[in-house]
Amino acid sequence: MRAIWKGSISFGLVNIPVSVCGAVETKQVSFNQIHEPCKSRIKYQKYCPCCDKEVPAEEIIKGYQTFDGMITVTQEDLTSIPLPSLKTLELDGFIKEKKVDPMFYQKPYYLLPNKSDEAYWLLYHALKKSGKVAIARFAVHSREHLALIRPANNVLTLCTLYYPEEIREVKEVPMKPDAKHLDMAINLIEQQTIDFNPENYKDRYQEALVEMLSKKQPEIVKRDEPQQVTDLMETLKKSIEKAKEKQKSA
């Protein structure tokens, strides 16, 4: 797994080296945007209107617009910010998981040990036995994230949390229902209470979409296109031939 962040957990006076790796991946059919008449894929170019040209990736940097002009920001500027959470997962404290509203949950990650560290497994088992989770902070992708750490799937996991100001408020006043209707609704809920088994659920829309695509025939359009896979030896031979032709003409 590719790590998006490497550092250590600050657990009291103990530092535990860890890596933050993505725990989920999207499984869905993705579509390309194409030009209807020729069925070619649409390309997006990074263009500079001032220089009137396409800009290569190596010439693109970060910038922040102010009233007085543009401030350029380098990667060195970002890594030099004096913030402990750039390299350390700071544990603010421990709470019962049910105290955290699921509305705050953002994205899950695996918190993997960089080596066979006894302190890592000590924290894992301590959280598991206590039934508590840790609230932590760490900085990545140009911002500091609030996170929840808990044991799951035989490792420590980390779930980033939304900040309170990121959750929209809904100003609705709950209506009080009729007591008999409420009792009937609760009775219906009790009758239909189930165990949640994730393996029983599949994305039915994606399955139907794949089936629909399998029945369609791809359109074959005759046009000159650059080859996706290039024969290196053939390319070198052509390059040598072109170079010889240039020498002769010179």
Quickly list its features:
13 strands, alpha+beta, seven-stranded mixed β-barrel, 250 residues, extended, Ku70, Chain: A, Domain 2, two-stranded antiparallel ribbon
Furnish the topology, listing elements before pairings.
Elements: E1 3-11, E2 14-22, E3 34-35, E4 40-41, E5 47-48, E6 53-54, E7 62-65, E8 70-73, H1 75-79, E9 88-96, E10 105-113, H2 118-130, E11 132-140, E12 143-152, E13 155-161, H3 179-191, H4 204-215, H5 232-249
Parallel strand pairs: 1-9
Antiparallel strand pairs: 1-2, 2-10, 3-4, 5-6, 7-8, 9-11, 10-13, 11-12, 12-13
Largest sheet: 7 strands, mixed, barrel
What's the Cα radius of gyration? 28 Å
**Which structural class do the helices and strands define?**
alpha+beta
Quote the CATH topology of the domain at 9-23 and 66-166. Answer: Ku70, Chain: A, Domain 2
Strand content: 25-35%
Continuous helix count: 5
Mean pLDDT: 85
- What percent of residues adopt helix (DSSP H or I)? 10-25%
Uncertain spans: none
Overall, the morphology is extended
Describe this structure in words.
The protein is of the alpha+beta class. It has a domain at 9-23 and 66-166: Ku70, Chain: A, Domain 2, CATH 2.40.290. It is 24% helix and 31% strand. The chain has five helices and 13 strands. The protein has helices at 75-79, 118-130, 179-191, 204-215, 232-249; strands at residues 3-11, 14-22, 34-35, 40-41, 47-48, 53-54, 62-65, 70-73, 88-96, 105-113, 132-140, 143-152, 155-161. The strands form four sheets. It has a seven-stranded mixed β-barrel. A two-stranded antiparallel sheet has the order 3-4. A hairpin with a 4-residue loop joins strand 5 (47-48) and strand 6 (53-54). The longest helix has 18 residues, at 232-249. The relative contact order is 0.13.
